[in-house]
Inverse folding.
């Protein structure tokens, strides 16, 4: 068995594996896709100390850094069950969709998250070409331009407030008849001069000129009428879904959004099971944060292992 088995090979899992192996632990990473969401990212300008990089390049560097440490990397492994140890100090088991299973004295869960997609024509075609999901990451790329934010929950309204400070104009498009964000955020939003709010508005298409986004089509849900807004960017803010479906019957505590609940040391509700990155309740889903959290989870696993007798 492993001392530390990490599930997920994004920034959080990679960082956890390097920290764990440097403690001399038998360390493994099992992941569906090494690199995680970073593989789907184009330009990255907020990875501190690296002014500019690109997703595939950063993913390759993560993989190389892990390979330089003594980590058993297993890719194309889709975990579908966590069977926690029955007794303190016992072995946890991770089962995989291909029928295999691995055991470990401690586990770090780092399976990340995925942005919920709108599912309209143009969204995939113009992804990274005007269609964006992360205002912290991509907001500055639209400096002075016109953008839309889709979604009127807290994340959508926060994104619109954030972007209004950077871009020329923001159109917030909400499907329902009202915004669902906290009142204080709504008040702030309505006080901004360069924001238009569309309610009862269904986004039906993101259009482009073949190279980049040039507009958005929405239909009034009561009038049935279609309208077009010309703009350069669309931020989809209808939810970040944690990859925790596979943990449903493990007994681990999840938040009402499905995130793994962790404490300030990355411990979950199960002794010896730690979690890090976008899959957890940690606020602000970013690469540098996921790496810090992964490192923290591995150090907490170390703390646990030196205090717990194996059984
Ligand atoms: P992830 O990167 O999601 O990695 C999860 C890992 O778990 C993957 O290896 C995946 O294959 C694996 N996995 C999932 N389910 C299973 C399973 N059941 N079994 C086994 N393995 C599984 N952040 C920034 O800081 N700057 C940016 O510029 C930036 N731009 C972004 C642009 C886009 C388009 C997207 C989607 C995200 C962007 N982010 C950016 C966010 C950043 O990518 C994430 O915060 C970060 O990747 C989270 O790391 P993670 O390791 O927690 O999870």
């Amino acid at each position: 068995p492993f001392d530390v088995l990490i599930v997920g090979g994004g920034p959080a899992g990679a960082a956890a594996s390097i920290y764990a192996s440097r403690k001399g632990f038998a360390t493994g990473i099992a992941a569906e896709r090494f690199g995680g969401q970073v593989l789907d990212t184009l330009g990255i300008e907020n990875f501190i100390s690296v002014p500019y990089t690109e997703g595939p390049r950063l993913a390759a560097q993560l993989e190389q850094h892990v390979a330089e440490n003594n980590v058993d990397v297993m890719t194309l492994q889709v975990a579908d069950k966590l069977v926690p140890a029955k007794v303190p100090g016992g072995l946890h088991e991770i089962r995989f969709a291909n029928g295999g299973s691995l055991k470990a004295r401690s586990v770090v869960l780092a399976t990340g998250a995925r942005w919920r997609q709108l599912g309209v024509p143009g969204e995939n075609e113009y992804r990274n070409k005007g269609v964006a999901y992360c205002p912290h990451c991509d907001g500055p790329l639209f400096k002075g331009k016109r953008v839309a934010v889709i979604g009127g929950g807290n994340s959508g309204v926060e994104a619109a407030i954030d972007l209004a400070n950077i871009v020329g104009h923001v159109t917030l498009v909400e499907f329902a008849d009202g915004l669902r964000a906290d009142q204080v955020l709504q008040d702030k939003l309505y006080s901004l001069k360069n924001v238009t709010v569309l309610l009862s508005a269904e986004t039906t298409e993101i259009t482009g000129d073949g190279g980049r986004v040039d507009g958005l089509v929405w239909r009034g849900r009561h009038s049935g009428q279609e309208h077009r807004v010309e703009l350069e960017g669309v931020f989809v803010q209808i939810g970040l879904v944690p990859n925790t479906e596979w943990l449903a019957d493990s007994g681990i505590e999840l938040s009402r959004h499905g995130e793994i609940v962790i404490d300030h040391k990355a411990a979950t509700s199960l002794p010896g099971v730690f979690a890090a990155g976008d899959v957890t309740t940690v606020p602000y889903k970013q690469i540098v944060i996921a790496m810090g959290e992964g490192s923290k989870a591995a150090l907490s696993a170390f703390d646990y292992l030196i205090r717990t007798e194996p059984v």
User: Anything to note?
Assistant: The chain has six helices and 19 strands. The two ends are 12 Å apart (CA to CA). The longest strand covers residues 101-109. Helices lie at 11-21, 55-67, 135-138, 154-164, 183-190, 287-307.
